[in-house]
Amino acid sequence: MATGRGRSIAELIESGERTISFEFFPPKDEAGAERLWRAIQALEPYKPTFVSVTYGAGGTTRDTTVEITGRIARETSLTPVAHLTCVGHTREELEKILDTYSEAGVHHLMALRGDPPEGPRAPWTRTEGGLDYASELVELAGGRGDFQIGVAAFPEGHPNAESRDADADVLVAKARAGAQFAVTQMFFRASDYVELVERVRSRGVDIPILPGIMPILNLAAIRRQSELIGADVPDEIVARISAHEDPAAIRAEGIAIAAELCEELLAGGAPGLHFYTLNFSRATLEIFERLQIRA
Q1: Does residue 23 have an active-site annotation?
Q2: Catalytic option among 23, 44, 139, 253
């Protein structure tokens, strides 16, 4: 269901009804824009709790992100969540971007520190006049407008975190700064998600945490991305995918693995599922078919 302005995303997640949500990224050209809107139109009938639109490093897609989220707010029944990062922005610039989102009718935000231009494993360099932590951006957004704020979570720990416990402390700090819900990076073991939730709950914080799902349609590409963000592709999954040579069979196995993970997460108490669509609807719809999720 879409949230409207009456109930927050956190309230909908906590209502006990299973939620689904989708993530898109700003297209680079007209063909990409057409593909994005086809995906949005295909997935809209499933009435997701929200859809999020990513934000390029250093604000490289700022205008496109604002345009897309505003258009979703105006032209669809969907609730758009706009990403915003600290990378490359001063506090004043961030305030102006927040005001632009408000003016565009976008009132839900993913507040992220963001990755350095060199990648998520590179040392963090603060922009002069800017912010160092996502928790600071949460506080800034909370005091700037009527925003409902989400943040990132890392089942296997952020690649720069000293430990998974230290990473849980960071998520707790974001929740105490005013974040209302969290969405995880992709991962492939349900136990990593369950243990993250347990670590956060043991610290007295009950922020809803949505697991992020990325189906493996190309093993080499997923392994490269996983290495960057500090996620591990388990050996048993590599073996299952590698047992096939035909691209269609590889794809089918990847969809099956993702559906099994979704089932295990929901059975283990996850309040919903967040799908990284890569601006395509087909893989997500194939997972829905296996999970018997209907529009």
Answers
A1: yes
A2: 23
